[in-house]
Amino acid sequence: MNPNDTNPQVPPDQSTPPMDQVPQAEQPSYISPSSYDAEPGVPAQPFVPQQPVEQPIVATPALDTNQYSQLPQDDRKKRLKTGLIIGGAILLTAVIALFVYFMFFTVSKDDYRQAREKLDAVKDTVSVRPSINSSGDPAEARKSFQESLDKYKSANKQLVGLKAFRADSELREKYDAYNKKAEGMIALLDNFAPSLEKFLTSTQALRKISSSSTAADYRDAQKVVDSNKDAADPSIKTYLEKLSNSLGEMATLRERAETATSSTDRLAISRDMIQQSRELTTAARTLRDDLNKRSDDVNPRDAFNALGEATTAKANK
After folding, report:
1. Among 183, 175, 116, 166, which Cα is nearest to 307's?
2. By C-alpha distance, which of 139, 242, 152, 229 is closest to 190?
């Protein structure tokens, strides 16, 4: 190597052979099986491997246990959330159904005892009935009757919605039978209470009539009755209308009697007066009978006793 040479040459690395001397990696040669049988002098053909034919995937009904892992993350979250919501709804429905069952369809001994106590409160008031047997002040009589009716209505309301009468089929049937009667009786008494005052006011005016009463006295009594004959109770209304007509007839007969000159006329007038009196007596009996029949038709006493006996039996078990 010349020291003055400005472009020194690096001697070739003796350990690195020239490229043309580097042995090339042997390429695998695939020999077609048919080449083994090739005729002499015919070069063997290289074997080219065939690409495998992809077979179509046929879906099977088998459950894919990795279905969630094959979904995108968002889809997996949505399905999980939906599953939780549905599961929660089913659980809530079951809890509510269980609550409703125990709340409305099972009856404890305490429920029966509570029902019996409420019935005891009704027992003292259920006997209220329409009655026209009063000689006191009409307004006071009506007030007293209304108080009795209000007590019964208040006590009876306490039976509404009791679990024993709602959930126990036997008691529910007996309660419905009683309540139907009770509602009918209350409707009758609601009309009777104000009508009672009108009836008593009219009968007070009638009691003022005597054998010495004049035609004017009969007319005055008729005016009192006329002002009260619009009673709400149909039986009382019918009676007061009859009473007004009879008082009018009697007033006319009294006028005739005052001017009669013969004994024959006076006798005929007397017979007619007696007839009017008899008709009024009949009308009064009819009124009493009608009130009794109507109240008997809706009297809840028997149905109440049946309900009370059945409830007591269940409460004492």
Report:
1. 175
2. 152
Residue 288 in this model has a pLDDT that exceeds 70: yes
Is the CB of residue 186 less than 8 Å from the CB of residue 153? yes
State how far the Cα of 158 lies from the Cα of 150, in Å rounded to an integer. 13
**Both tokens of residue 304?**
């109440």
CA 149 to chain centre: 27
pLDDT, one tens digit per residue, over 170-223 is 999 999 999 999 999 999 999 999 999 999 999 999 999 998 999 999 999 999
Three-class SS state of 129: coil
Burial class, 247, CB count within 10 angstroms (exposed 0-12 / middle 13-18 / buried 19+): buried
d(CA 74, CA 208): 99
Which residues, including other chains, have CB under 8 Å from residue 100's CB and lie 6 or more apart? none
- What pLDDT, on the 0 to 100 scale, is given for residue 134? 78
Mean per-residue pLDDT of the chain = 79
Distance CA 125, CA 250 (A): 42
User: Residue 8 — φ and ψ, nearest 5°?
Assistant: -65, 145
Which residue has tokens 């209220």?
A: 128
Alpha-carbon Rg for the chain in angstroms = 56
pTM over 0.70: no
What would the pLDDT profile of 94-139 be if each residue is shown by its tens digit?
A: 545 444 444 545 789 999 999 999 999 999 888 888 888 877 899 9
pLDDT in tens, 238-276: 999 999 999 999 999 999 998 998 999 999 999 999 999
Secondary structure of residue 68 in the 3-state scheme: coil
Q: How far apart are CA 298 and CA 277, in angstroms?
A: 32
Burial category of 92 from C-beta neighbours within 10 Å (exposed 0-12, middle 13-18, buried 19 and up): exposed
Q: At what angle do helices 234-259 and 215-226 cross, to 10 degrees?
A: 160
Alpha-carbon distance of 115 to 311, in angstroms, equals 7
